[in-house]
Write a structure and sequence with these properties.
By secondary structure, the protein is α/β, with parallel strands linked by helices. It has 14 helices and 5 strands. The protein has helices spanning 13-22, 42-56, 61-73, 97-104, 125-136, 156-160, 173-180, 189-196, 200-208, 211-222, 230-237, 242-262, 270-288, 294-306; strands at residues 31-35, 79-82, 113-117, 142-148, 163-166. Strands 2-3-4-1-5 form a 5-stranded parallel beta sheet, with helices on both faces. α5 (125-136) links the parallel β3 (113-117) and β4. α11 crosses α14 and α12 runs antiparallel to α13. The longest helix has 21 residues, at 242-262.
Length: 313
């Protein structure tokens, strides 16, 4: 590995071999869609690709060294990053003016030009239309890279023009060893990954925020061991934020559904599925309305479990 090139995470190595193989072909892709669960470190994989294209594949040693220094400084002229402009959470068509000018220029180093768009879910429809046209008429040695956690939000026509690569976070020995080294003693790395279905970096953040305590509280609630009034519970949970509480409830309910299915389906699923639907509706309401009262949604999540609909009694 060249000096300055970022080190890959253990769970990214297989995907990296796939990427390098794609650039050994006669016609490398003009579009690349990298997707992974939250906390998989997609940015690190994209950075490694930048070094590979701008530094390792350079024909001249002097250009290779200079490219490495420019990448480290975030100033490489053949790289353009497009992100949502604060306070907006979207990438609008109007933001792509710089991209269009960049697309028309030649490479300063005689190699590949790259545009990195992250997160791809933030792209508005008008922006997607512009990018689709660029992909359809892409000149040689140009690359659009999309980073996404939910590829389904992108138009199918745009996805079809890209090499699509899902970066999995399988709990293999290398990944688990990496995570165990970074978690406090006693934390079960395998259990965290299995339950949250996220990447190791997200697990690190959750543990650092103390969400293990929240998880224990919600497990006690689902098991019927927490009998405090709904209003009191909602007030207590609100310190974590309704989004995190509802997400943890969703994950724990999924785990209970999975356990019952693995037990042979002998235990009824109706009540759990009904409760999952309530949680999903509360999350949608929370995400769609900035004025949604978190305490009311949390209280509803308590009452919906304690007083299920009669058809599931």
């Amino acid at each position: 590995m060249n000096d300055g090139a970022p080190e890959l995470y253990p769970w990214q190595r297989e995907s990296w071999r796939t990427l390098k193989a794609a650039w050994r072909t006669a016609r490398p892709p003009s579009g690349l869609l990298l997707s992974a669960p939250p906390g998989a470190g997609l940015e690190r994989l994209a950075e490694r690709l930048q070094y590979f294209l701008f530094q390792e594949r350079s024909r001249h040693a002097a250009n290779s060294s200079k490219a490495g220094r420019l990448l480290a400084a975030g100033a490489h002229p053949d790289l353009l990053k497009v992100e949502p402009e604060p306070p907006a959470q979207t990438i609008r068509r109007e933001q792509l003016r710089d991209l269009l000018r960049f697309w028309e220029l030649g490479s300063r180093f005689g190699g590949t030009r790259m545009v990195l768009l992250s997160p791809a879910e933030a792209l508005q429809r008008g922006a997607c239309d512009v990018l689709l046209k660029l992909l359809e008429e892409a000149p040689p040695a140009t690359l659009l890279v999309f980073l996404a956690e939910r590829t389904g939000t992108l138009p199918a026509t745009l996805r079809s023009r890209c090499l699509q690569l899902l970066v999995p976070c399988r709990p293999d020995s290398a990944t688990l060893d990496w995570l165990r080294e970074r978690l406090p003693p006693g934390e079960d790395a395998d259990a965290w990954l299995r339950l949250t279905r996220t990447g190791p970096l997200a697990v690190q953040e959750m543990v650092a925020r103390g969400e293990g305590a929240l998880r224990e509280q919600l497990e006690a609630f689902l098991a019927g061991r927490e009998r405090r009034p709904a209003l009191q519970l909602a007030a207590d949970w609100q310190q974590w934020g309704a989004a995190r509480v509802l997400e943890w409830l969703r994950l724990l309910v999924i785990e209970r559904i999975r356990a019952r299915i693995e037990a042979g389906g002998q235990l009824p699923l109706g009540g759990l599925i009904d409760y999952y639907e309530v949680l999903a509706r509360c999350r949608r309401e929370l995400e769609s309305s900035s004025g949604a009262r978190e305490s009311s949604l949390l209280e509803e999540s308590v009452l919906a479990l304690r007083h299920p609909r009669p058809r599931y009694l």
